[in-house]
Specification:
Elements lengths: L4 H13 L2 H8 L3 H15 L4 E4 L2 E4 L1 H24 L7 E6 L1 H9 L12 E6 L12 E5 L8 E9 L1 E6 L10 E4 L7 H10 L3 E5 L2 H9 L5 E4 H4 L5 E3 L9 E8 L6 H16 L1 H4 L8
Parallel strand pairs: 3-4, 3-5, 8-9
Antiparallel strand pairs: 1-2, 5-12, 6-12, 7-10, 7-11
Helix pairs in contact: 1-2, 1-3, 1-4, 2-3
Length: 289
């Protein structure tokens, strides 16, 4: 198995800082995590790289040989970075959630990134694939925070759902139902229609965002989060919010990543954005239909 370049860079940090605590301060990665990765690197290379002592991590003979080679690799890497120029020097952070959340975040992208010279933000829809939180520089917005693992979790706003239909059905009490297919339903809100009106479903889809398009094209009514449905002028609520679907949103990030300045800044901006629209998420917006 070949050594990972990220692990080799961590090896360089430990060697230059003389131990785990110095490397942790330099990289923002916790000392226990660095220790585990150095041990894994030693197993991968089948060589002892450090002598552990009270004085810290002292390079073993094989470690000294590797250090010289990693420094050569780092020099080449820096030269490539310099050659690449300034095209993509802004730090990158990925934000993710279900279809509705990523749709909302994309509509408010200006609140998360100020453009060139700030932070590049990627938007990822995990509605169908489930939670994949353990990724580098990823901030995940979810109603299902992990109950174990090395994560930092920040509680955010309440989110409510309601049934919506096109305004053309305003005088029609029994508008047809639209649902997400059972095989694609991950959340209680996805399942609500077929759990209550299975025999009355007129149309269905295997993609959450297509529910909205079907509704906007007059195909019937469906369950949407209030922060989506209340902002569509051609939709109206069909009844009160569905209290049983009310959920709390959480921001989740790998605990090592939360120390990165760009990740911390995006989390602050994201939490501020959600808080600013807290009434909309809770279904209390005065102009909600």
């Amino acid at each position: 198995m070949e050594a990972n370049w990220d692990d080799l860079k961590l090896f360089l940090d430990v060697a230059e800082c003389g131990g785990l605590s110095g490397a942790a301060a330099r990289t923002g990665i916790s000392a226990p995590t660095i220790g585990r990765r150095i041990q894994a690197l030693e197993r991968t290379m089948n060589r002892l790289l450090f002598e552990r002592s009270r004085r810290g991590y002292v390079l073993a003979k094989d470690g000294e040989i590797l250090l010289a080679r990693v420094r050569e690799m780092q020099k080449v890497s820096n030269e490539i970075t310099d050659w690449h120029g300034g095209a993509f020097q802004d730090p990158v952070v990925e934000v993710a959630g279900d279809t509705w959340m990523t749709m909302f975040l994309a509509r408010h992208a200006g609140a998360l990134s100020k453009g060139a010279g700030d932070i590049r933000v990627g938007y990822t829809d995990f509605h169908e694939t489930g939670q994949q939180i353990n990724r580098d520089r990823l901030v995940f917005v979810t109603i299902e925070p992990p109950d174990s693992g090395n994560y930092a979790i920040l509680q955010s706003v309440l989110m409510r759902f309601a049934v919506y239909k096109g305004v053309e059905f305003a005088q029609i009490a029994d508008a047809p139902w639209i649902s997400l297919g059972k095989e694609m339903s991950r959340y209680p809100s996805d399942r609500w229609v077929y759990e209550h009106f299975d025999r009355e479903i007129y149309s269905w889809t295997n993609r959450a965002h297509l529910l909205l398009h079907l509704m906007l094209n007059g195909q019937g009514r469906a369950v949407l989060p209030c922060f989506i449905g209340d902002m569509e002028p051609s939709l109206m609520r069909d009844g009160d919010v569905i209290e049983e679907l009310t959920a709390r949103l959480y921001l989740v990030v790998n605990d090592d990543d939360r120390r990165r300045p760009e990740v911390r800044l995006v989390m602050d901006r994201l939490n501020g954005l959600l808080g600013k629209h807290g009434e909309l998420f809770a279904g209390h917006l005065p102009e909600a239909k």
